[in-house]
Write a structure and sequence with these properties.
This protein is an alpha/beta fold. The chain contains three helices and eleven strands. The chain has one domain: 4-Layer Sandwich (Purple Acid Phosphatase, chain A, domain 2). It has a six-stranded mixed beta sheet, covered by helices on one side. This is Phosphoesterase.
């Protein structure tokens, strides 16, 4: 199974256009959106291409493939426009027998992980900084970064799970930034 993970769109249609190119190239079966879809948020700069209505059109066209969770900038008004559910604080995904806990990261995250077994993947966004590491408790912390507002000197990025490997890739080129082969579950 191939799953593409993305987070922190913050109303940027240009970022979604680049992401759709990667989706077309990689052809994942599942898309996971880890929150912060439309609103830029009061602590983030307003991107020149900020146009949440265009993002709605772009993402609604992928609605059958998206599993999404609510970010700290997502609201019930956003849900009224989007044709796929975004209001859940978390979701789970089973891929190749591996458990993924999907959340935005403002409640559950690497510093406050949910109760998961070793080897499970905690997939979250929120920080806008890519992360791929095994925590002390054996949980894999996976943050695909932000497609629109990367922080910490990082480039815009997304993540991919395929054949037991997690990768974080640069949004524009698709080049791998980091990867990890997961242990057999």
């Amino acid at each position: 199974m191939k799953v593409l993970f993305f987070s922190d769109v913050h109303g940027s249609p240009e970022s979604v256009t680049l992401l759709r190119r990667q989706i077309d190239r990689l052809a994942p079966e599942q898309l996971v959106l880890l929150g912060d879809v439309l609103y830029h948020g009061p602590r983030n700069p307003l991107r020149p291409d900020y146009a949440p209505q265009l993002v709605v059109e772009q993402l609604n066209g992928l609605k059958e493939r998206i599993t999404a969770v609510r970010g700290n900038c997502d609201s019930e008004v956003d849900q009224m426009l989007l044709a796929f559910p975004i209001m859940s604080e978390y979701a789970t995904l089973l891929a190749d027998g591996r458990r993924f806990f999907l959340t935005h990261g403002h409640h559950w995250g690497p510093g406050n992980p949910p109760p998961l077994p070793a080897g499970a993947v905690l997939a979250c966004g929120h920080t806008h900084i890519p992360q791929l590491e095994v925590l002390e408790n054996g949980i894999v912390a996976f943050n695909p970064g932000s497609v629109s507002l990367p922080k910490g000197g990082c480039k815009a990025s997304f993540g991919v799970y395929e054949d037991g490997t997690l990768r974080i890739c640069e949004l524009e080129s698709g080049d791998e930034m980091m990867s990890m082969q997961l242990q057999q579950s």
